[in-house]
Amino acid sequence: MAETTVIIPNWNTRRWLDGCLGGLREQRYKAFRTILVDNGSSDGSVAFVREHYPDVEIIAFPRNRGFAAAVNAGIAEADGPYVALLNVDTRPRSEWLWHLVRAIERDDGVACVASRMLNLEDPRRIDAAGDTLSWYGSARKRGQGDDAAGFAEPMEVFSACAGAALYRRSLFEEIGGFDAWFISYLEDIDVGLRARLRGYRCLYEPRAEVLHHGHGAGIARSRYVYLMMRNRLALFTKNIPLSLLWRHRRTLLYGQLYFFLVYKRPLAALAGIVAWAISLPYLLRQRRTILAARVVDDAALDAMLIDELGEPPLRSILKAKLRSLVPRSGSPTRSEKEER
């Protein structure tokens, strides 16, 4: 098998390093090198790796530049035909990389392979079995929370969760790598969508298993809302033809309104929308390049995205909110409480 480069972004997640790097030491597949890209950690992560895992190469940034910039730095140093991305809060099982490489070598039309990511606290449950993207704008981990036994067969999926996935290095040479403008969140969906527009496919390989904690590198809630609102709009601006944007305009608009309301961080959400609008010149330049190179037609692209929001309907959320505002029988009203 050919050499693979495993790239692990890290930011103040020293507590997860031993499990992740220890799992890599136990891999059946040995023809790989490991690059840890540290995003300006202050918790001793780099010193720990140098002492306990001296074979791991380190790229150290002075500050946190985000997931996309980190993995791009690792990809730039890769020299084999395959690149594996692995979140630091994972524990790869011993045959994880073996099965990923075998899967991608079977078919030249496959550009990436998604792992079976299992919940670290309850490995009977799926954390992710590939990713989906809907016309509402929601990007979801396929099967999250479901019984892992139901995801035991390999199949084609929309894209791979970059927390544990294998890519052809040539794909990044062709499409330009991860978009560092995204910083974090949805950058793997963006890569997957650009690959699909070029006619490449993504496979889910259930035998390639990792345990995943999820949100091991925490981010402030307001920052998360800002990035998600901004990046979701950018994802569709960059990659979707105008004909399909118009066809699904009501669904797309509903989705943006939905997330604006349910995030409950209106200022952060509004800041994300403003940041998207300010960046439109850059996004439109990207769009021209991306769509000029696409080989799939509208019908094929339309079928790749699903029509499910994947979240509770807005009316159900509003009804629950209204019920919570109505005093229960026998309970004091707000004015009664104030009188007391």
Account of the 3D structure:
The chain is an alpha/beta fold. The chain has 2 domains: 4-212, Spore Coat Polysaccharide Biosynthesis Protein SpsA, Chain A; 221-319, no CATH class. Helix content is 44%, strand content 20%. The protein contains 14 helices and 12 strands. It has helices at 14-25, 45-52, 67-77, 96-105, 169-175, 187-197, 221-239, 242-247, 249-262, 266-278, 280-292, 298-304, 314-325, 334-339; strands at residues 4-10, 32-39, 57-61, 82-86, 90-92, 110-119, 126-128, 131-133, 139-141, 155-157, 164-168, 201-212. Strands 1, 2, 3, 4, 5, 6, 7, 10, 11 and 12 form a 10-stranded mixed β-sheet that branches. Strands 8-9 form a two-stranded antiparallel ribbon. Strand 8 and strand 9 (139-141) form a beta hairpin.
Indicate the topology.
Elements: E1 4-10, H1 14-25, E2 32-39, H2 45-52, E3 57-61, H3 67-77, E4 82-86, E5 90-92, H4 96-105, E6 110-119, E7 126-128, E8 131-133, E9 139-141, E10 155-157, E11 164-168, H5 169-175, H6 187-197, E12 201-212, H7 221-239, H8 242-247, H9 249-262, H10 266-278, H11 280-292, H12 298-304, H13 314-325, H14 334-339
Parallel strand pairs: 1-2, 1-4, 2-3, 6-12
Antiparallel strand pairs: 4-11, 5-12, 6-7, 6-11, 8-9, 10-12
Summarize the structure.
With 340 residues, the protein is of the alpha/beta class. Helix content is 44%, strand content 20%. The chain folds into two domains: 4-212, Spore Coat Polysaccharide Biosynthesis Protein SpsA, Chain A; 221-319, no CATH class.
